[in-house]
Design goal:
- The structure is a homodimer.
- By secondary structure, the first copy, chain A, is α/β, with parallel strands linked by helices.
- Among the domains of chain A are: 215 residues, Metal-dependent hydrolases (TIM Barrel), CATH 3.20.20; 76 residues, no CATH class.
- The first copy, chain A, is built from 23 helices and 13 strands.
- In chain A, the strands form four sheets. Chain A has a four-stranded parallel beta sheet.
- The longest helix of chain A has 20 residues.
- At the A-B interface, helix 2, helix 15, helix 16, helix 17 and helix 19 of A face helix 2, helix 15, helix 16, helix 17 and helix 19 of B.
Chain lengths: 546, 546
């Protein structure tokens, strides 16, 4: 098995791959600078000082650190800029049905149907290598439609609602969907959940779909209803729950609906396969996946035996190895370096309970040293029920001392707050020695912390679409990413919960970043992809496995 | 006439004024820190390092520069924090009719009716001294309702629309309102603009109001229709024109409708009086008012003679002196230090035309040295018709060399762009030696420029409500102000175009800033008020007048 001995291939931009882009539109060069008359000595001097100032201002950016770009790389960057400039007018400057105010970097849930039709997306961004996906939640990593298909494909999966669904209740009722043991299966003549005689029991999901009232859309209506409970819809984000606090009500409910489907061994395995396969197809070469150990079991194939969480780790190991073998069999072993887990629990537990979690994490690390990459606490940082990191300082300090092999990779500063508990988490994450920061949305407010992140190379896992859908920013141009980048802080673009945001892969996040700036270009994205490897644990993986 | 010989009185917070706040709610102290058990040595050490890091991170903030706050000041700050914390729950945490998602710092146009009812606004912020108002456009400085009253009060002011207004056209037709010379007055039996026989001629505005179709609301319906053309309405900002580009269509139209009313000597004078009086009542002690010299005349009382713009300066001098005398007569001479003009023209002119403007500005400075405070170029920086500063570099460089007495005070970076022409204006504003920066919304992206602003004390005129209504930010918590403040850059809060935003005075801008942060408090706002004097030309004013 070939493992990357260094980060040069194929995880970053390099001439052979870029050259294919150049042929796309070599008739569309960036406009040459206009042939203005020779400037006066005063103006010439001014222009020189201006150039110098701009260079100084941008000196810390990752795309300025390398000086030796090849001609092909520079050319590819220029071509991409010209496509972006063209589509800013031809795509984003014209009216679109159902999209009231199109512009580059606009709200993703409204923009998606436009984005996928652009050349910039379909010919460039979706095809470029992304490096590592370092911030994604395991139970939000497979497309909603696929999860529904997985559920429909397993006879144990049943659905129930409080009573017969009708047009009105369809708008508000969330389904319960989960595996049930065979002895709880209803009689084969089960009636559907829209049937007036339905009294609220379990119905096989496949049956419920088939029997769904044609007046409510039949099977297609069923799919639409269920999927709207799996994802955040535009009307959720931009209307019903249009604040950073309220949207978490809907966000939380999507996990409540889908989690019981996934935490079932046969589906869990297939789910993970799907996650890895779709990631590879999007140009992702390596994954560090945040996995929750908050619930204490996973359900066995019989849908009643509660298996220890060690089983979950066995599944991760098995599926990862299987996927690597599959890629090798296709002669594509270079396209997938592997997967690691960031162990996480919810920041609602007590400091005492945290100690038990930390113990479990370290036991898992001993048994699965190649799999456990770090430890994190997750949840809605602004939520009243979530504790700030400072509440856990004591056990975390002890753990850091005893387990230098398990770094913290904390969520922190995923907030609009200024001086709120969620914002203050950034101080603690850094003081506790976090290796990277999940989100760090409010980091831009902290000059000293930015300096530390720059000097210690603490990378920020920036999740553009997540931040926007979860209402921390209203569009990509409003996002603080350029502030962070221009301070010379390493950034890895991440998808967070792509299943809920309908933003599978990293291409959509890369796209939104690319169109929202005139400074950022293909060279920037390429360097970000490279950096995602540098700040990951993939090299540690190499040393473990080789 | 008493003039402030220094900035200590009454422009900043000082104990006697603050003490009155303390009595407001001294039963509501901030919660005392919980009596947790003595921390372990490890935790104690951690807490100490944490305190140090937080202090380092905030060291550059203006509210940390002074160390000698009095007990009364500290107490006042604490009281204000407790009121804010209480109302975050009691006001912003409950449902309000017609306001779907209330929260502190939410979009101003929806929040205003809630804001005015808070104790924080009515008892604290509206009563505190604000220092100088340093960024306000002269023709956007008087409340819309007052402008309508001024128009209704002058017989020369007439109105016209293309044809009879009805319920449908009311939604889209903008009125033309302006003074007309007496020989153009219609016959006294003028018919109203909603009359089916109306053919599109001038109607005295008072008459048009009286005759407004009762089916369309009569005079109240007339007022509603006219005022909706004077201001940006919630439906404009959050629906019809909900992007930073589109909102300027509406914004521009409000000026087009109101400018002809104001550029008329008798109304101009009264308009300026109203501006100064209402500013003083809001705690503003000094004004630097951006005044456009783009149009080449002001209309005389006869509504046909086009007077030179020198007349405008005479009006400013006359009204300012009159207002100062009025304040002195009330024994309140300390409450108004005066008014100066920042000469501005539109950044749509050619570099050649700019030279003529600069010449005129310097001539005015010679004749009115006490009145002209600086020079600026204004307009929609992102707009296709607006030129970037670099296009004007040559004449501006020459002017700066020849006229060190007329500083540039440029609008720059009023944009979401990253590397766009509007964003790049920041480099030029600074290189050209701007004394302050109007907006500087995109400054946070520029580490080197922030360093220069900090070191050279180039203040940023931050206009919170303007930025939000004009869609650069969706709410105050999303605003980059804390980033700028924490970098140690001087900030003056400003209202920009309060007439169009329905945000008269500085109280609303101060309020939005105060509720959107847990770090910022009364001491911060007080220091900002002081700083607004330091970075103004009021001291130069003193030396000129005394």
């Amino acid at each position: 098995m070939r493992i990357y001995a260094n980060e040069s291939l194929p995880l970053g931009p390099h001439p052979p791959q870029w050259e294919s882009f150049i042929t796309l539109s070599n008739s569309r060069n960036a406009p040459s600078s206009s042939s203005s008359p020779v400037p006066s000595p005063m103006l010439a001097d001014y222009l020189q000082r201006r150039e110098k100032l701009i260079a100084e201002d941008r000196a810390l950016r990752i795309d300025r650190v390398r000086a030796n770009y090849s001609t092909a790389e520079l050319k590819a960057d220029e071509v991409v800029r010209s496509i972006r400039a063209r589509e800013a007018v031809s795509v984003w400057g014209v009216n679109h049905e159902n999209v009231p105010h199109p512009y580059p970097g606009m709200e993703f849930l409204n923009a998606k149907e436009i984005i996928v039709k652009t050349d910039l997306f379909s010919k460039i961004v979706s095809k470029m290598p992304k490096g590592g996906l370092l911030h994604v939640h395991q139970n939000a990593s497979v497309e909603a439609k696929t999860v529904l298909d997985l559920a429909l494909g397993h006879p144990a999966i049943h659905i129930r609602v409080p009573g017969p669904l009708d047009a009105a209740s369809l708008e508000t009722v969330l389904p319960k969907i989960q595996p049930v043991p065979v002895e709880q299966y209803p009689a084969t003549d089960a009636i559907g959940i829209t049937d007036l005689l339905y009294t609220g029991g379990w119905v096989p999901i496949k049956k419920a779909r088939e029997l769904f009232d044609p007046a409510l859309g039949g099977p297609a209506g069923f799919d639409k209803w269920v999927l709207s409970a799996f994802v955040i819809n535009p009307s959720d984000a931009f209307k019903t729950y249009n604040t950073p606090m309220k949207i978490w009500l809907k966000f939380g409910s999507t996990f409540a609906v889908t989690d019981p489907i996934i935490r079932f061994v046969p589906i869990q395995k297939e789910y993970l396969r799907m996650c890895i396969r779709s990631s590879i197809e999007d140009g992702i070469s390596y994954i560090e996946i945040r996995t929750s150990f908050f619930k204490k079991y996973i359900l066995a194939e019989d849908a009643k035996t509660k298996l220890e969480l060690r089983e979950l780790l066995l599944i991760f190991r098995e599926v990862t190895n299987e996927m690597k073998a599959e890629m090798k069999a296709k002669g594509r072993e270079d396209d997938f370096a592997g997967l690691k887990i960031i162990y996480n629990t919810l920041r609602i537990i007590s400091p005492k309970e945290l100690e038990a979690e930390l113990d479990q994490c370290s036991r898992f690390k001993q048994e699965f040293p190649d799999l456990i990459a770090g430890f994190d606490l997750v949840g809605h940082e602004d939520g009243a029920e979530c504790k700030p990191l400072i509440d856990y300082a004591e056990p975390l300090l002890r753990f850091a001392e005893q387990h230098p092999d398990i770094p913290f990779i904390f969520h922190a500063g995923e907030t609009l707050g200024d001086g709120t508990a969620a914002d203050m988490n950034l101080y603690d994450a850094i003081l506790l020695g976090t290796k990277r920061i999940g989100h760090g949305f409010s980091l831009a407010k902290h000059p000293k912390l930015m300096q530390i992140c720059r000097e210690k190379k603490i990378a920020i896992e920036v999740c553009p679409i997540s931040n926007e859908v979860l209402r921390l920013t209203s569009s990509m141009p409003m996002h603080p990413l350029p502030i962070i980048m221009n301070q010379g802080i390493p950034v890895v673009l991440s998808s967070d919960d792509p299943a809920m945001f309908n933003s599978m892969g990293l291409s959509f996040d890369f796209f939104q970043v690319l169109v929202a700036s005139e400074v950022t270009g293909l060279l920037t994205l390429g360097q970000m992809a490279r950096d995602s490897i540098t700040v990951s644990h993939v090299l540690a993986l190499v040393s473990c496995i080789v």
